[in-house]
Each structure stands twice: as C-alpha cells, then as structure tokens.
Amino acid sequence: MRKILDIIAEYQFDLSDQIDLNKINIIRLWTITNEEQMWQLYPKFNTQTGEKIEYEELTLDDLNLQHFEGIFLEDKIHDWNVVGGKLNYYSRIVEQHAKVRILIEYENI
User: Fold this and answer.
1) CA 86, 98, 100: angle at the middle one, nearest 5?
2) Fewest CB within 10 A of the end CB: N or C in the chain?
3) What was the pLDDT predicted at 30?
4) Which domain covers residue 63, as residue numbers?
C-alpha cells in the first residue's frame, strides 16, 4: 500500500494524526520532488500485448515509481527510520524543519 503524507523534516516527527507507525511496516520512503512528473509514472501499455491500458481512476498503487523521476528514494537508516512510533526523517535533499511531501510504501502488521 502507498500513502502521501505532508510532514516537517525533523527527528521524532509524530505522524499519529495521519498514520499509526506502530501498526505498519514502512517498506520504502520516497521524497516527492515533482508530483506532476511522479503521476506520469504509470504503465501506459500492457507489456505482454502492447495494448493501451485504460484506467478508470489512477491510484498511487498504479504508479511505477522510479528514482529521480519526480520522486527520490530515501535510504533507511541514513535518511529515515521509525523509532518509538515516530518518524525520524533527515533526508539529504531537504533542509531540517522544512515542509515536505513524502510517499510511503507500507504493509500492515
């Protein structure tokens, strides 16, 4: 599953009003650098048949996320971590205390 969150880049950021970090396992965390470009990363053709794929409504799960294509893949431990149910986010591409949009890929635990 995927979710976009608006956060402040800092240590021990409390996301409890948006998501319970004690109930999910974050698989990947991405910093959104160009959301419009990111939304263009969906499969447009079926690779088996070559036929155009029609979407009734495009979702985050449909996107084929690619590093440096409007989105930046952050490294766990070096750029982010979850400690005590809070997110430590210290990306190299965002200043501390700046507002930022992130995309998390996660699974329920």
Assistant:
1) 70
2) C
3) 98
4) 2-108
What pLDDT, on a 0 to 100 scale, did the predictor assign at position 61? 92
Phi, psi of 77 (to 5 degrees): 80, -55
Structural tokens at position 37: 């470009």
Q: Report the candidate in 30, 40, 39, 38 with the shortest Cα–Cα distance to residue 7.
A: 30
Query: For residues 81-94, b (16+ Cβ closer than 10 Å) or e, as one string?
Result: ebeeebbebebeeb
User: What is the sign, positive or negative, of the torsion defined by CA atoms of 21, 88, 40, 42?
Assistant: negative
Stretch (H or E) spanning 37: helix 35-38
20-73 pLDDT tens trace: 888 899 999 999 999 999 998 888 888 899 898 888 888 999 899 999 999 999
Tokens of 75: 């490294």
